[in-house]
Amino acid sequence: MNLISAGDVTETSTIQTGGGTLNAGTTAAGRAAGNVNVSGAVTKITGAITASGAAGLGTNQAGGNAGVVSITGTGALTAAAITASTGNATGTGAGGTAGSITLSGTTVTTGALTTTGGANGAGGNISVTSSTGATTINGAVASSGGAAVAAVAAGSNAGKIIINSAGALSGTGLTLTASGSNATGANLAGGHGALIDVDAVGAITIGNIAANGGNGIATNAVGGNAGSIFITNNSVTTGVITTGSLTARTGAAVGTGAGGTAGSISVVNNAAGQAISTTA
Known about the structure:
The protein is about 0% helix and about 35% strand. It is an all-beta fold.
């Protein structure tokens, strides 16, 4: 679906491009979602956007591919909650291809952003950019790998979360999660956590942030790699950084399985005399 205008774009209805549900008794992979592309000057979308793949049906069927959601504007951008997740696979079926969410405007105000994988599916990347002012995200931002549903499935990887705000960053209920999921079968690896990178110019206020690797479960299972967390206030004059807990751990290994690659956590406040506060 495309909404392209040289002027403003306003949409008050929900936007749904998800894959259709398969008929009962069908044995097939889930249907793929369509993409959503919105571009204008001032862009305002007050209905939720869903571009998720449909579930597979039958034994060991793949989930449907997630859609790609891109909303860009030369003015302020306002959006409601956006979801672009893969459809649930069944048994050992593969997860669908991960989607993504990209938002950019002079300022950005949005609801929750979700690309978490469906069953056996990877999470998709999420990117939010404001070019002249603040970014407000009212809800959780989640790009984790989907749960492994079969007894012989590896964990799934998370997608990256990248936020660049030319002003402050805040939001009601704002948390960031990009963690790999746990494996469910013997000798299978946990999924990898992903990068979470937040840059703002001014105050940064976020709840809990996690970029963990998924656990191996049985016999000689490898733990998933940890992601890394980088939070930076690029203002030299103003802005306190306040966060909840920060975790970027490797997934647990089992037996002779190797532990995942370690991640890192960095919080930098370039504003003179301004504090950093995190909650354990």
